[in-house]
Design brief:
Layout lengths: L11 H12 L5 H7 L5 E7 L2 E8 L2 E9 L2 H13 L7 E6 L5 E8 L6 H12 L7 E11 L4 E10 H14 L5 E4 L21 H73 L3 H11 L5 E8 L2 E8 L3 H8 L4 E6 L4 E2 L6 E9 L5 H5 L5
Parallel strand pairs: 1-4, 4-8
Antiparallel strand pairs: 1-2, 2-3, 5-7, 6-7, 9-10, 10-13, 11-13, 12-13
Amino acid sequence: MLKLDTEINLDFGKFFRWWWSELSFLVPVSLRAWLGTTPRYLILSPEGDGFAVCLQDETGSRLLAHWTLDETGSQQRDALLADTPNLSEVIPVLRLKPHQGLTRTLRLPLAAEENLLQVVGFEMDRMTPFKGDQVYFDARIITRSTPERQLTAQIWLTPRERLDRLIEELAAWGWQPALVDLEGSHRSGTCNLLPSKYRPARNPWPGYLNLTLGFAALALLAVMAALPAWSSYRQIEGLEQDMRRVSKVAKEVDQLRQEAEKLQQEARFLQHKKRTEPVVSDLLEELSRVIPDNTWLNGLQYNEHKVVMQGQSPSASSLIELIEASPHFRNTSFVSPVTKDLGSGLERFQIASEVLNGRFAEDTHSPAGQ
């Protein structure tokens, strides 16, 4: 069953070491040697009254010499180092024989990974004839089984007394091993049985340099990730500025268009008024033309395209025909009955007519003007 509350142990250093070791074979040997990324080991193996010395590098392992722990061996060692000065840069490794240590495989709960060495120390007396304080040991995880929540660890150990004696002999001879492993344990560096009290102090500067380079790489990645977003932001900002400028021009154009439409509507209104509204002077002139001289007007009212005339005439009925014949009038009719004035003998009338703009009367009466 999937456990989402399990703590995730992220060891980036271990991951990158494993990643480089798995991919390093893709890099040519000469290039790895030039870059200094291929470790070289000087293997010191106890044999008889001395040590067999082998050089192990990417090309394999080759025997250099067999040195005894005496004056003769010291002279041979000094001569070899003088002939091959680059040996001073290799990593000295004390490699124990199989009979000088033990190798065991142990299955443990997956939770023991966080404190593997401590758990192995507790289990030492159960799986070996030694107690935890009697041996130097190291452990490495071989496999993990998440469904079973188990792990398999390989353990290397050697008695403390034996290893202390060998290290003291080497120290008296002028050698200080950086690693201690067992013969047959995969490749060099897989395990290290060297006690912490004998391990050389680590130079912190490479770690600081790696940390600085790591932060620099992260900063470069952040910059690379941010550059497209920043470029897009700048482009969007430029487009927004262009849009604001275009929008301002568009508003000005729209305002001019509205003003033009307003002026056009006013011009149309004035033109419509000019074509439809009658001119009063034309009205009076036309009435004086069509009304006979023997007809008198006592009153005249004009309002809303309509004129009402009151007066006296010898023949009021003939006035309707005369007025209607004019292009300035239409729908002419009597407003009240015609009466006879006994004093003058003339007929009293009151006539109403719709007044037109006589100047555009033809357009008004034409089909296009309707």
